[in-house]
Design brief:
Elements lengths: L1 H12 L1 E3 L2 E4 L5 E3 L4 E3 H5 L4 E9 L5 E8 L2 H11 L3 E2 L6 E9 L2
Antiparallel strand pairs: 1-4, 2-8, 3-7, 5-6, 5-8
Length: 104
């Protein structure tokens, strides 16, 4: 049982290229990283959306990335990708709501 649990856990972090679509908030994204579709989720033919709230710093980097909803197997992939996004600089922080859709 432990080996199966460990294998499932490790598979979550082994990623393959995904067919993920993102919808962004009001601030323009200048560098978008596509989320990698987790192999375990792909094997289970899991699809769905992950909702993410990002606090974007004035320099355009992601200050915080918080999952607001979605399947846990897909959430980490969305969070890791969005953490690398860059937005247009602005005078102050902004909050952006993003939805990432995963389809196997």
């Amino acid at each position: 049982m432990r080996a199966a649990t460990l294998t499932a856990f490790l598979c979550v972090f082994a990623c393959c290229p995904s067919r993920a679509q993102e919808t962004e908030g009001s601030r323009k994204v200048v560098n978008r990283v596509t989320p990698q579709y987790p192999s375990l989720a792909r094997g289970l033919k899991l699809q769905g959306s992950v909702r993410v709230e990002v606090v974007v710093a004035p320099d355009g980097s992601a200050k915080t990335v918080e999952i607001k909803g979605g399947h846990p197997l897909l959430a980490r992939a969305a969070q890791d990708a969005i953490q690398q996004w860059k937005w247009v600089p602005a005078p102050s922080e902004t909050r952006e709501l993003i939805e990432v859709k995963f389809n196997p």
